[in-house]
């Protein structure tokens, strides 16, 4: 193995470990907190977490094995199953993010009618569509034998070995990425930019009230005035940062891989194998970032996982103190004897 392959293998191992821990923690928060389970977006986050966990335990290990051994890990049947899952899970994850953006758009732009427009039944229908949409492409690919081990990405994924099917495969790949990556990106941009517009409008209203209050309060201390102005500035930046994170991570993680897959279809451009694996690792990094972007850094989830950790530490401290007490009593009995 070259130094590049060692680095890439190490990166995949780190991504696997962090993705597994982070997504399991999200799942624990969902099971632990009744309030999270009651919320409609919790269904979309649960679906996204399920996809991320399955991607972590099925696709990442085979990519790691492909990097190390430079050949197809396992038999053809295993590779076909993993390739099927990779196509299904990637599409499902993208559409789940689009569903979460639609939920936020309805909640912010139509707050009074949110509970009537986005119920559990509506969320279940959206999830049903995402599953049908996601499973249709790998079914077509598997039926046409367009799933296999691709050396460029060291992964079991969409791959055409027959030159006579090249035109059909090019069309299929273009349609697939258009209706998965591009569709999700358009939905994300439309919904979150609408949310940002509403957020900025409310910020302007609050800024006007704040400035009027500061003008009226003549005897206010300068430090209080400065804190108010700083909070006003932070408020304007908060929504922009969040929405930039949602859209930015989606583009940064998925765009290089999707562009590489499309460029690869051209026989003119040669793609370096190291770049192919790097683009795949960037796509895997979305599995790592999703738990933090959509769940663990939010106040409700943060409070829940802190409660879980405190509960585990409290139990372990009680158990250790009980064991210490038992050993102390035994020592006293031995001295008395």
Automatic annotation (TrEMBL):
<protein>
    <recommendedName>
        <fullName>G-protein coupled receptor 26</fullName>
    </recommendedName>
</protein>
<dbReference type="GO" id="GO:0007189">
    <property type="term" value="P:adenylate cyclase-activating G protein-coupled receptor signaling pathway"/>
</dbReference>
<feature type="transmembrane region" description="Helical">
    <location>
        <begin position="123"/>
        <end position="149"/>
    </location>
</feature>
<dbReference type="Pfam" id="PF00001">
    <property type="entry name" value="7tm_1"/>
</dbReference>
<comment type="function">
    <text>Orphan receptor. Displays a significant level of constitutive activity. Its effect is mediated by G(s)-alpha protein that stimulate adenylate cyclase, resulting in an elevation of intracellular cAMP.</text>
</comment>
<keyword id="KW-1003">Cell membrane</keyword>
<dbReference type="GO" id="GO:0004930">
    <property type="term" value="F:G protein-coupled receptor activity"/>
</dbReference>
<feature type="transmembrane region" description="Helical">
    <location>
        <begin position="6"/>
        <end position="32"/>
    </location>
</feature>
<dbReference type="InterPro" id="IPR049579">
    <property type="entry name" value="GPR26/78-like"/>
</dbReference>
<keyword id="KW-0297">G-protein coupled receptor</keyword>
<feature type="transmembrane region" description="Helical">
    <location>
        <begin position="44"/>
        <end position="69"/>
    </location>
</feature>
<dbReference type="GO" id="GO:0005886">
    <property type="term" value="C:plasma membrane"/>
</dbReference>
<keyword id="KW-0675">Receptor</keyword>
<keyword id="KW-1015">Disulfide bond</keyword>
<feature type="domain" description="G-protein coupled receptors family 1 profile">
    <location>
        <begin position="22"/>
        <end position="294"/>
    </location>
</feature>
<keyword id="KW-0472">Membrane</keyword>
<feature type="transmembrane region" description="Helical">
    <location>
        <begin position="243"/>
        <end position="263"/>
    </location>
</feature>
<keyword id="KW-1133">Transmembrane helix</keyword>
<keyword id="KW-0807">Transducer</keyword>
<dbReference type="InterPro" id="IPR051880">
    <property type="entry name" value="GPC_Orphan_Receptors"/>
</dbReference>
<keyword id="KW-0812">Transmembrane</keyword>
<dbReference type="InterPro" id="IPR017452">
    <property type="entry name" value="GPCR_Rhodpsn_7TM"/>
</dbReference>
<dbReference type="InterPro" id="IPR000276">
    <property type="entry name" value="GPCR_Rhodpsn"/>
</dbReference>
<feature type="transmembrane region" description="Helical">
    <location>
        <begin position="169"/>
        <end position="195"/>
    </location>
</feature>
């Amino acid at each position: 193995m070259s130094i590049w392959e060692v680095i890439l293998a190490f990166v995949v191992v780190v991504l696997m470990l962090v993705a597994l821990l982070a997504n399991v923690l999200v799942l624990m928060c969902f099971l632990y907190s009744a309030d999270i389970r009651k919320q409609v977006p919790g269904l979309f986050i649960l679906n996204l977490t399920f996809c991320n966990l399955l991607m972590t335990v099925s696709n990442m290990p085979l990519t790691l094995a492909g990097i190390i051994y430079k050949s197809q890990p396992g038999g053809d049947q295993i590779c076909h199953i993993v390739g099927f899952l990779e196509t299904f899970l990637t599409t499902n994850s993208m559409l789940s993010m689009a569903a979460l953006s639609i939920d936020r758009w309805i909640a912010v732009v139509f707050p009074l009618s949110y509970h009537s427009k986005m119920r559990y039944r509506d969320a279940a229908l959206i999830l049903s569509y995402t599953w049908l949409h996601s499973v249709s492409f790998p079914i077509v690919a598997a039926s046409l034998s367009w799933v296999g081990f691709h050396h460029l990405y060291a992964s079991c994924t969409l791959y055409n070995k027959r030159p006579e099917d090249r035109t059909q495969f090019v069309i299929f790949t273009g349609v697939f990425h258009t209706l998965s990556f591009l569709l999700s990106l358009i939905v994300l941009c439309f919904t979150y930019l609408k949310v940002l517009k509403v957020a900025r409008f409310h910020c302007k209203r609050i800024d006007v009230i704040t400035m009027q209050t500061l003008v009226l309060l003549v005897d206010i201390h300068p430090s209080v005035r400065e804190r108010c102005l700083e909070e006003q500035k932070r408020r304007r930046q908060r929504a922009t940062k969040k929405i930039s994170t949602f859209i930015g991570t989606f583009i940064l993680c998925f765009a290089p891989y999707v562009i590489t897959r499309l460029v690869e279809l051209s026989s003119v451009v040669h793609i370096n194998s190291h770049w192919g694996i790097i683009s795949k690792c960037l796509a895997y990094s979305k599995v790592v970032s999703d738990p933090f972007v959509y769940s663990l850094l939010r106040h409700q989830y943060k409070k829940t996982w802190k409660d879980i950790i405190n509960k585990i530490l409290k139990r372990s401290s009680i158990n250790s103190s009980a064991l210490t007490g038992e050993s102390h009593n035994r020592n006293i009995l031995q001295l008395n004897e």
